[in-house]
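[audit] Reproducing an earlier prediction to check determinism. Same input, same settings, fresh worker. If the C-alpha cells differ from the archived copy the diff job will pick it up downstream; this log only records the rerun itself.
[audit] input (333 residues):
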Amino acid sequence: MIRTDAPSFAFTRAPTRRALLRGAAGLGGAALFPAGLLAAPTLRVATYKGGDGLLLRRAGQSLPFDVDFSEFGSGNLIVEALAAQAVDLGGMSQIPVAFAAISQAKIKVFATVKGDVNEQIVVVPGNSAARRIGDLKGKRVGYVRATTAHYFLLKMLEEEGLRFSDITAINLSPADGQTAFASGALDAFAIYGYVGQRIQQSYGARVLRNANGILSGDYFFTARPEALTDASLRAEIETYLRVMRKALAWREAHIDEYSNALAEALGLPASVVKAVHERESQPRRLVPIDERAIATTQEIAKTFFDAGLIPRRGDVGLLFDRSFDALLSEKDG
C-alpha cells in the first residue's frame, strides 16, 4: 500500500563523474551488515531539474520508501551513472540508449514514456531568409551532440539531400547555444525543450521545422541491471512506476498548475513553460515497451553509423527488458 504521509525525498544536484564513481565503489560496504538488520533500500533516481520529484510532490503522490533524486544535465550522463552503479534508474530519450548499445554500457530499458516532439525544433532569426532546412547549406548551425537535436538535424538534412558536412555544425550546450544565437553567432539552432521556446519569446526567433514525423515520441525509463534482479529494489521500482502513472495522469488534468510550479523550479517565465505544454504532440504517459520502440531506437543507431559518426550500429534489442510490460498494461486503479 502506498502510504499517504510525505515521502522522504532527498535531492542531489549535478554530481560529478568522479563523485559518482567514488560512491559506486562504496556500495560493497552493505555486505558488512546482516541482511535482517538492513532497512528497505533507498531508491536512487537520476532525473533532470524540475523532474520526477517535483511532479510527485505537486501531484500529492508519496512512496513507502526513501528516494534520492540526483539531477543530471543529459541522458548520456545518466547512462554513465547507471553503468557506474551510482544510481538505480533514470529517464532519457532514445538517443543515449542507441549510444549505450554501441558502447555496450550495462543498462536496461524497462518502460516507455510517451512524450512530446513538437518542442524539438530548428529555430532561425526572425529575419532569416531560410524557409526550409535545405536553405541552411553552408550556414552556421548549432546543435547538442548525442541528443535528439543531433539526430533530428541529421534526418532533416538527409531529407534535403544534404550531409552534416554541408553545414557548419557547431556543438554547443543548450545554454551556450542560446547565448550564441542571441549574439548572432548562429544562423540556426537545433534545440529541444524550454530553451527553444525562450529563444522564440526573447529574441524573436522563428521555427523553421519541428521534429514531428522524425522522432517517435518514445522516451525511456532505464536501470542498472542489478536493480532489476534485486528483489527489494525491483519491488520499489514497480511501486515507483505505479505512482508515476498516477502523477502523470494528474499532470494532464492540472497542466496549468504544474506549468507554474515547473516554471518556478526552472527559473523561467511561466509563459515559456505553458507555451510548450499547450503544443504537446501527445499526452505524457507510461506504457509498455513495444516492437516499434525497439525498431526506432535501432534506426537511430543505424543513422549515426551511416553518417560515419559511430564505429558500429550495436544491437539495441539486447538492452530491453520487457518484464514490466504486464504491470504497465494494468488499468489505472
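[audit] rerun output stored. Observation attached for the diff report: The CA atoms of residues 18 and 327 lie 36 Å apart.
[audit] end
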